[in-house]
Give the backbone structure.
Amino acid sequence: MKKTILALFAATALFACKEEHKAGTNLHISGNIKGFKQGKLYVKRIVDTNLVTLDSIIINGNSSFNSDLNIEEPEMLYLILDRGQTNSVDNQLPFFAEPGDITINSDIEGFYSRAKITGSENQKLYESFLEIKKRYTNMNLDLMERNLEATKTGNTQQLDSIEKASEKITKTRYLATINFALNNADKPIGPYIALSEVYDANIKLLDTIQKSMSPEIAKSHYGKMLTEFIDNRKKEDTVQ
């Protein structure tokens, strides 16, 4: 009887410890990677340009996974798939995490392309931006094909036309990206897109995004990074 009571006490204490640990987290990630039966999953964040592991999950027969983390604010995290010995490069999935419950479902045969992520408003916005980016990427791919054909035939007039079209696409893509960042300057995704996609844009355009940030976002991780980045660029421009 005494052993039973002690066992129950130990189990209760263990449960309490687990509950306390769960209470110290604010982000629950769950999901399933179809066909992934053996290996590891890592949840990582970027710290000073390096990927740092926040959690590691061993996959052994069951392709479902769970991870409980604590994040101070919405941020871009990375789900990394370790297949073991393989030549596959489709092993990294960025997702915009925010406190709450996030579900990530994907497939071993298309880890990035087939991923479905729910539970994050910033992720929804990020995916809408990726659609914009994809449109311009497809335009450039089409121009590359036309450029190859024009090069083969020696059509200099066509090559000049393609070059002008390429410059126009680049300019339009930059403006669309800046417009997206401006329209979402009251959310973490705004300064993140500015930093990751148009960091080399005209400083006045970046300044406009920075000044459009809400007070809350200006104090956020990406908001502070954008402000610091712009200040450094201005100093460099002054020196030059």
Observations:
- The two ends are 82 Å apart (CA to CA).
- The first strand starts at residue 27 and ends at 34.
- The first helix runs from residue 2 to 23.
- The CA atoms of residues 54 and 224 lie 22 Å apart.
